[in-house]
Each structure stands twice: as structure tokens, then as C-alpha cells.
Automatic annotation (TrEMBL):
Pfam families tied to this protein: Recombinase, Zn_ribbon_recom
Domain Recombinase: 1-133
Coiled-coil intervals: 215-285
Highest taxon, organism lineage: Bacteria
Alphabetical keyword list: Coiled coil
Protein name per Swiss-Prot or TrEMBL: Recombinase domain-containing protein
Length: 506
């Protein structure tokens, strides 16, 4: 273990942030945003090799996470040479990293350790799981895409992981697709499931599972905020302390040089000035960091944070919560999700396997292209027949269906009178008439005429009455589409239409 306190604190910080972020690149982004460089010891030139500080890189973070010495172990055989992977002109190429169980020598408790060996093994497993490889069942790091279950949703028919594709005119509708049989054996796709509907169902159950522990989670989040603030402040204090020490050391070196030895004095003076400029730059960065951080958490802030933490659905839907954050939360509780869109008619069967080993099964209605594929088509038809038999016209029938929770098959929208009329025509359900099953009278009780009544009164065919209604020579109305006409025929209309007929017959 390096005796430098700042080096130790920075290595501890890398492991701590990896426990939270679970991604080497995520740790690198955090260190760069916080302006915290990493210690590096370049093995160039004669020993001893000094520690220098460089901006964090993903490769540097991975080197720290994959180095067993930080777990106190001495190992041999981490890499072997593979001649088939050597590149021409690169003598150092061709090295292949070996898994832990194939290391030739592994001695524990040789060095002071930053982490336990079990945590080191868990870190290696997490780094491997961060690689996206469906064939090896590696779901990769949560990314920013819309589909929340990418990498953890399986096909209930063949067991393979479902891939993701985007459909729609603008390519913004994610769909989970199982093409394992098609890719391997030239068969057909197992199934396709729309991601938005499935993600919504899973998110509801995820939030419901966390509901009893909302207060505990809020308190843990508040404690974590305070710990992160203290850890970052400690890192900056150590960094400022280092550059101040180096400036003081350069000053002492300059003070002890003989004034007559101007060759050495000028060099030491230049080094001292460089160290002073470094102190000024680091202190300025420290002040910038402090101004960018939140003010100290007050009691009112604690109450507000706890209030937000208790409302997990609000936090889940917040604009500041990214899809990558939502995916990472889901992965903490859910191991995988199995779906089958063919097991139940018009429904998607789902099994959620939680990290605790428990599982949950449920079904939800899927979007379909026709009512024949709908899950409740028989119930809907039966209900429409019952309401039709109760003498409800199409508009009234649609209102009743909407009130009872029925929705259209494809777009899940409320019913309208026109939609009900189309379904009645499709299923052969008769129109509800204002006079029941009797023939339309020549004249209704309110004095208006039916089509046949108006035709007899004016001495024309019923088709002529329909034409006059269409072109506006007569006015009338229907209570609903398919209902009998009620036509208003005044004495003035009779005179004008008869005059028009005489001119037309000349």
C-alpha cells in the first residue's frame, strides 16, 4: 500500500464509486467531472519510479479494478501469450487475459489490502457482465435507450434473450424481438412484444415492490448524499495539501542554494514559480468546485428530500431521472423477465424473476390489429348485444361501454357511436329504431315525415327524397347513424319542390 495518504484516498474512492455506479467508464466520468486525477507510476527509466497524477481514463480505472494486488493477493499467470493473436511489428502483442480460476499462482494476504478478495471477484464478474453479449447472456451496462428491459427480457418460447429494434415512421417505438430460431436455423421469428406496454407493466410492479420501504430508501439516499459530499471534500483537501507541500519544498530548495551558483538558482527559482502557479490553479479549481456544489444540507432540506424520497413514482417520472438510471434500479431488483405473446389469446404472459429468488406471473392485454385477435372480443360482443337489446342507440351504447372500462382493440381509445355502428354491422346486430321493430309511419308524432311519408306527400320516389336531403333541398336529422329520418316539410317546401318538378318534367 502506498504510504501517500492522497494516493490511498483516491484508490479507495475508485472502489467506492464502482460499488455505486457499477461501470468503469461511469467512474471515469465521475472523476473527470469532479476534477480528481488518478495516481500513475510510469515504469520508464531507472527506479525508483515516482507517482504522477493524470486525468482519469477508463483504462486506468479498469487497471485498478482488475489488479489483484489491491485485494492483498500475489498472483502469477494473469496473462498468457497466444501466437495466433500477435500483430506484425508489435512484439508485446498477443497476450490474452486468463480467468481467475486459471491463474497458476494466487497467494492471499500478501499485501495490505484496499478491498476484500470476495469484493475483487464480484468486481470482475460485474466488469464481465458490463460487456454486451447475448450469446453469453451478458446484458451490458444500462444505456440511454427507451427500452427499460433491454438485456434482461427472455423469450418464453425458446428461452433466448430478446433483441431490440425500433419501429414506426420515425423509428421511435421500441420492440422486443426474438429471432434466435430464425438466425440459428433459418426458421421464423418466435415473437415480438411492444416495449412501451411491457415496460409500463414492469415499472408498476417495481414501484409497488418498493412502496413499503420508501422511507428507508429516502433516509439511505440522504445519508449517501452527505457521505459523497464529505468524501469529495476530503479528496480536494488532500490535493490542495499536496500542491502546497510541493511549493514549500521547492521554496526550501531555492533558499538553501548558494546565491553565487546562478545556474542552479535560476532552475530552482523556475521550479518554485511553477509550483506556485500549480497551487494557484488547484485552489481556483477547488473554489469552483465548492461554488458548484450544493449548500450545506439544512433541516428544511432534509424534510424536502425525505418528502421526495417517499414519492417514488414522482421520482421515477422526473425529468432528471434518465433511462439509464431507471434501468440500473430495475437491474438491482429484477434478475430477468420472461414473456410469451402466444400463450394466451390477445394477451402477453409475463413472469418476473426477482433477485431474491421469488417470481411473479401475470398477463396484460396487448395491442392487436383487429377485434378477432382481442382478448375480450367475446365479452365485448356479448355486452354490445345486451345494450342493443336494451334499446340503447349507438352514441348511448358507446358512453356505457366507456364508463364500464371498455376500449378499442388497436389503439385502446374510448368508443364512439361510429365505432359501435361498425361493430354492429360486422356482427350483424340490428339497428335500434325509435319505433322499435314496427314499420316507419308516414308522419311522426312531432309532425315530421319519414322518407316514405315525405315521398308520398310530394309524389316522388324515396330515392329522390334521399337525394334532396343530400343536396340540401330538404332538411332532416337522424338520432344516430342507421336510425330513421325525421324530415321537416313545410308548405313553402311543397310549393318550391312542386314548381321545381314541373320545370324539370318539361
Amino acid at each position: 500500500m502506498n504510504p501517500d495518504e492522497e494516493v490511498q484516498a483516491r484508490i479507495h474512492l475508485v472502489f467506492q464509486k464502482f460499488r455505486d455506479i457499477r461501470s468503469a467508464r461511469g467512474v471515469m466520468c465521475y472523476l473527470r467531472e469532479a476534477h480528481l486525477p488518478l495516481p500513475v507510476r510510469p515504469l520508464h527509466g531507472p527506479a525508483p519510479h515516482e507517482v504522477i497524477w493524470q486525468d482519469a481514463r477508463a483504462s486506468s480505472v479498469r487497471d485498478i479494478l482488475q489488479n489483484p494486488a489491491y485485494a492483498g493477493a500475489y498472483v502469477y499467470g494473469r496473462k498468457v501469450k497466444d501466437p495466433t493473436k500477435r500483430r506484425p511489428g508489435a512484439p508485446g502483442s498477443g497476450h490474452v487475459r486468463q480467468p481467475v480460476d486459471k491463474w497458476e499462482i494466487c497467494l492471499h494476504n500478501v499485501y495490505p489490502a484496499y478491498i476484500r478478495w470476495e469484493e475483487f471477484l464480484a468486481n470482475q464478474a460485474q466488469l464481465r457482465a458490463n460487456q454486451l453479449n447475448y450469446r453469453e447472456e451478458l446484458h451490458g451496462v444500462p444505456r440511454k435507450g427507451q427500452a427499460l428491459l433491454q438485456g434482461i427480457v427472455r423469450c418464453g418460447y425458446c428461452g433466448a434473450f430478446l433483441h431490440l429494434r425500433y419501429s414506426g415512421p420515425h423509428g421511435d417505438f421500441p420492440v422486443y424481438v426474438c429471432n434466435n430460431d430464425q438466425r440459428q436455423f433459418g426458421g421464423k421469428r418466435c415473437q415480438e412484444v411492444r416495449a412501451i406496454a411491457l415496460d409500463t407493466q414492469i415499472a408498476q410492479r417495481f414501484l409497488a415492490a418498493l412502496h413499503p420501504d420508501q422511507l428507508t430508501l429516502a433516509l439511505a439516499a440522504l445519508a449517501q448524499l452527505e457521505q459523497e459530499e464529505q468524501a469529495e471534500r476530503k479528496q480536494w483537501e488532500l490535493r490542495v495539501e499536496r500542491v502546497r507541500y510541493e511549493a514549500k519544498r521547492a521554496e526550501r530548495q531555492y533558499q538553501v542554494v548558494e546565491p553565487e551558483n546562478r545556474l542552479v538558482a535560476r532552475s530552482l527559482e523556475r521550479q518554485w514559480e511553477e509550483k506556485l502557479r500549480a497551487v494557484e490553479a488547484v485552489e481556483k479549481e477547488y473554489q469552483t468546485w465548492r461554488s458548484a456544489r450544493l449548500a450545506p444540507i439544512t433541516e428544511a432540506d432534509r424534510v424536502s428530500i425525505l418528502a421526495v424520497g417517499r414519492d417514488l413514482p414522482l421520482l421515477w417520472q422526473a425529468e432528471t431521472t434518465t433511462n439509464a438510471d431507471r434501468k440500473q434500479m430495475l437491474h438491482l431488483l429484477i434478475r430477468d423477465v420472461i414473456v410469451d405473446g402466444k400463450r394466451a389469446h390477445g394477451q402477453v404472459w409475463v413472469q418476473v424473476n426477482w433477485q431474491t429468488g421469488a417470481y411473479e406471473e401475470f398477463c396484460y392485454k396487448r395491442s392487436v390489429r383487429s377485434y378477432e385477435a382481442s382478448a375480450d372480443v367475446e365479452t365485448l360482443e356479448q355486452r354490445i348485444r345486451e345494450l342493443n337489446a336494451a334499446q340503447l342507440i349507438d352514441a348511448q351504447l358507446a358512453e356505457r361501454l366507456n364508463a364500464e372500462g371498455y376500449r378499442t382493440a388497436r389503439l385502446h381509445r374510448p368508443f364512439t357511436g361510429g365505432t359501435v355502428w361498425l361493430l354492429r354491422e360486422k356482427w350483424g346486430i340490428p339497428t335500434v329504431k325509435i319505433n322499435g321493430t314496427e314499420h316507419n309511419p308516414a308522419q311522426w308524432e312531432d309532425g315530421s315525415y319519414s322518407v316514405h311519408g315525405a315521398a308520398t306527400h310530394l309524389g316522388v320516389n324515396p330515392s329522390t327524397i334521399h337525394h334532396w336531403l343530400k343536396v340540401g333541398k330538404l332538411t332532416g336529422h337522424q338520432l344516430a347513424k342507421g336510425m330513421p329520418w325525421k324530415i321537416d316539410v313545410t308548405d313553402e317546401d311543397v310549393i318550391q319542390l312542386q314548381e321545381w318538378l314541373r320545370r324539370a318534367r318539361r
